[in-house]
Amino acid sequence: MTVIRLQQITDLSHHFADPFIKAGDRVVDATAGNGKDTIFLVEKVGPSGLVYAFDIQQEALKGTEQVLREAGLTDRVRCICDGHENMIDYIEDPVNAVIYNLGYLPGGNHEITTTRETTEKSLKTAFELLASGGVVMIVLYPGHPAGQEEKEMLLPLCRSLDPDHFSSVHLYLLNKTGIPPELIAIQKNHF
Question: What is the domain-level CATH number for residue 175?
């Protein structure tokens, strides 16, 4: 049994995405970073599935590829050194899940970060690519300026989604000091 830690928003992201991803699915890690979301997705889709892992930093993709090699899972992932806002250039078929872990690469250059503009464009594309019943998980970090700008864009955008087509949830830690990460979960309703 997997232990879920409420203080780890990334754990909650995986927990909420888990029931929506099955073997053979096509899914997206929109921000590969250190590879944790990629590994989660690869294990969920199994040998017949495919994960598209995006990152703008070659350093991040090298780390992700190393983690995948060590786990023997490289055959299920297409690592793409490009911004998530360009995912439409690489994906043609519907996807069942898109996971974002916004911000900067942990341990990397904090000046290189996701931005309001690229995240908004990417999210609109994700909604188009998302299969009926599919989910988008967004971990956001409003404790730095670019993260706060993304939050200021994301919350109104998610509130404005047509409730006949999407359901969205916003989760955050109420009793953590500072400005903790937050989670937005969106499902494309079944038609």
Answer: 3.40.50.150
Closest to 106 measured CA to CA, from 178, 28, 32, 29: 32
Q: Does 74 fall in a domain? A: yes
Q: What is the pLDDT of residues 159-181, one digit of tens each?
A: 999 999 999 999 988 888 889 99
Q: Which two tokens stand for residue 124?
A: 């609109």
Q: Over the range 99-136, which residues count as b (16 or more CB within 10 Å of their CB) and which as e? A: bbbbbbbeeeeeeebbbbebbebbbebbbebbbeebbb
**Model confidence, pTM:** 0.93
Domain count, the chain: 1
Task: Identify the residue whose tokens are 């400005």.
Answer: 179
Q: Is 42 helix (H, G, I), strand (E, B) or coil?
A: helix
Rounded CA-CA distance 74/144 in Å is 33
Q: Which residue is associated with the tokens 């916004």?
A: 102
